[in-house]
Each structure stands twice: as C-alpha cells, then as structure tokens.
C-alpha cells in the first residue's frame, strides 16, 4: 500500500493559508497591538473573583448549558436565553456558524479590509471567500456590495461594525439595506460595539436572518475567551448541535458571570477609553506625516507618509508595540494603535513623533 507524504495528508485549502499572527507576551513593551482594554481588574473585583473561582469543582466537567452565564447575558441583553450561543471567543462562533450553514461551493462575503478570521475560517473549511473592497477612506461601496451579493449569492455576509482594522461603522440604514438584498445570513459583528455605543440587537425581532456576534474580549475580559451570538432561536438550536460539548471552561464561565455583574466597572473603562480615543485622535490629526482614519472602536488606524515598516520599527525600538498592517491589501503604510491608558498613549504619541522626524 502506498503511503502519502506527510503534508499530502493536509488539505490544500489549509496548506495555502497563513496562520493568524498574535504577538508573544513582552512585558517590557507598551502593548497597543491587540485591541485589549488597558485596565486590569480592581482589587475589590479580584477578591470577589478569587472567592468565586475557589468554589469551582475542577474534577467535574463545566456546566454544559452555561446556565448561570447565559442568564446573566440574557438579562443584560434583554433576549431569551435560547437566543444565545456562547463560544470560546467569538472566533469559535464564526467557525461554528460556517460549519453549520456552509458547505462546498458556498460563498462567504465581507467588505474588506476586515477581521482576518472570517476569510481564514471560511477558506480552511473549503468555502469561497469574496472580499468587497471598501473605498479609499474605507467607506462602504454600497453599489458594488449589492452587485457582488446579487452575483455571488453568499450564504453568510460578515459586517464588522465598528470594523477592525479600519474603525469605521455602518449605519442602521446601510445594514437594513444589506439585509433586504442578502439571500442568506447577515452577521453583524459588534465586538467593538460598546465603544461605538450602538447595537443592531433591536432589529432581531423583525429580521430572522440577522445574527449579532459579540465578545467580552474588547471590554476588559480578553483572558477569559468568551464570545456570544444572538440569533433566532430556530437557528441557535441548530448551531447548538455542532457546538462542542463543554466549550467554555468552568473558570471562565464563573468569572464572566461574576464580572458581568459589575457592569459599572466595564462602562467606566469604556468611557475612559472613548475619552482617550478623542485625545489621541486630535494629536494624530495635528501630526504631520500621519493620516488617521475616524474610529468608533478602541483603536485608531493611521497611514504614514514615511514607509510604514520603518515607522513601526522605530516605534517598537522605543518600547511601544502597535500593529503593522502594511502587508494587508489596501493598507500599505498603515499601522493600528489600540487606545491605552493616558500614560501609555503619551508613550505612543512621543514614540511616533520621534519616529517621524
Ligand atoms: C471584529 C472582530 N470580531 C471578532 C474578534 C474575535 O474576538 P474573540 O475571539 O476574542 O471574541 C475580533 C478580535 O480581534 C475582532 O476584531
């Protein structure tokens, strides 16, 4: 019997991919590359968390239905518990959605540039990914989008709003227009929604093909790996069939349930970041050699007149890590900076100013 070469055993779709790149931890750097919240838990919450985690029975599997966390989320979002699916990060839910809905020959569509995992997960599953380019200032090209939807008949459309990495938002009217022409699901990814202060959740009542995706990662709980989606219960029941049992570990379930009951801490962190976003944006606008793009998220995308790679390295050399997006089509010489604490933002602004001299 003929044996295959090792890499012939891997699907060509996977061989052609490039892995998602996340930076290693570097405590010596000001970390402004991953759109995390800059605020650690305050001591009172750490204490409450310690107590709650101490009760976790690690010799048992976690609650398979995530009842406690599910009901905390359902109350906060004012949706039925059955309208929710919880994931190990919203990444997992993107994978789950495509696994449950889309087979060979199916097209998945998104305006681009956008969050890279939509394409990576689609292609890994052997699906076609169609990116519809945004305009020169990253605005939506609605006629082109509609034309592509009609031509490609996508099973799933991903709309990140605010969009990563551009920071731009779609209006409700734009999303309703897309819902009206889309033949399949429209997934509105609101991972950064709290920073924009808006949501499409109220539209779920009359739009059964609308799916809202969200995450706790960007509002201070990235280490827990918890995402959720809200959709019509008939759809969530099907998604539950392909969700792996016990996908949310017991510590994360408990920690999220405890911390979500401190919405005042989350809201205050978001408000502080939004305040700092305005200050950083004002400084970037005034800085020669930099073109920042409007952002409703907790990060700002900007283009540099000098080569982006050089600016990235010069900023890094001063101890500040941002995201270099120069190799993404349409983002030549573009860097993305997460809004940090005021001290971190000052470090970044100083480093950037020096890098541009
Ligand atoms: C738009 C968007 N959606 C989803 C995610 C995934 O978030 P997580 O898997 O941490 O919930 C990210 C992460 O960067 C993102 O930018």
From TrEMBL:
The modification N6-(pyridoxal phosphate)lysine is found at residue 218. Keywords: Amino-acid biosynthesis, Aminotransferase, Histidine biosynthesis, Pyridoxal phosphate, Transferase. GO terms for biological process: L-histidine biosynthetic process. Signal peptide: none annotated. Belongs to the class-II pyridoxal-phosphate-dependent aminotransferase family. Histidinol-phosphate aminotransferase subfamily. NCBIfam families: hisC. This is Histidinol-phosphate aminotransferase.
């Amino acid at each position: 019997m003929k044996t295959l070469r090792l890499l012939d055993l891997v699907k060509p779709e996977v061989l052609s991919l490039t892995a998602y790149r996340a930076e290693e931890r570097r405590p010596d750097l000001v970390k402004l590359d991953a759109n995390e919240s800059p605020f650690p838990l305050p001591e009172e919450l750490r204490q409450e968390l310690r107590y709650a985690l101490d009760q976790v029975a690690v010799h048992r599997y976690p609650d398979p239905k995530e009842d406690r966390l599910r009901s905390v989320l359902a109350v906060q979002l004012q949706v039925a518990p059955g309208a929710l699916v919880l994931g190990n990060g919203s990444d997992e839910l993107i994978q789950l959605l495509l696994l449950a809905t889309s087979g060979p020959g199916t097209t998945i569509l998104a305006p681009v540039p956008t969050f890279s995992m939509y394409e990576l997960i689609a292609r890994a599953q052997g699906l076609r990914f169609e990116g519809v380019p945004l305009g020169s200032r990253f605005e939506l090209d609605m006629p082109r989008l509609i034309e592509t939807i009609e031509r490609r008949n996508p099973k799933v459309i991903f709309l990140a709003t605010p969009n990563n990495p551009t920071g731009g938002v779609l209006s409700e009217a734009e999303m309703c227009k897309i819902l009206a022409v889309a033949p399949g699901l429209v997934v509105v990814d609101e991972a950064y929604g709290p920073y924009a202060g808006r949501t499409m959740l109220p539209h779920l009542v009359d739009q059964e093909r609308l799916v809202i995706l969200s995450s706790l990662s960007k509002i201070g709980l990235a280490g827990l790996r918890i995402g959720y989606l809200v959709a019509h219960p008939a759809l969530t029941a099907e998604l539950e069939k392909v969700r792996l049992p016990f996908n949310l570990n017991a510590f994360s379930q408990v920690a999220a349930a405890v911390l979500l009951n401190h919405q005042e801490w989350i809201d205050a962190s978001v408000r502080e970041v939004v305040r700092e976003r305005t200050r950083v944006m004002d400084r970037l606008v005034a800085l020669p050699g930099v073109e920042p793009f409007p952002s409703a998220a907790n990060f700002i995308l900007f283009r540099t007149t000098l080569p982006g790679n050089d600016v990235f390295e010069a900023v890094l050399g001063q101890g500040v890590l941002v995201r270099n997006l120069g190799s993404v089509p349409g983002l030549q010489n573009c860097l993305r900076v997460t809004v940090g604490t005021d001290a971190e933002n000052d470090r970044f602004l100083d480093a950037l100013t020096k890098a541009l001299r």
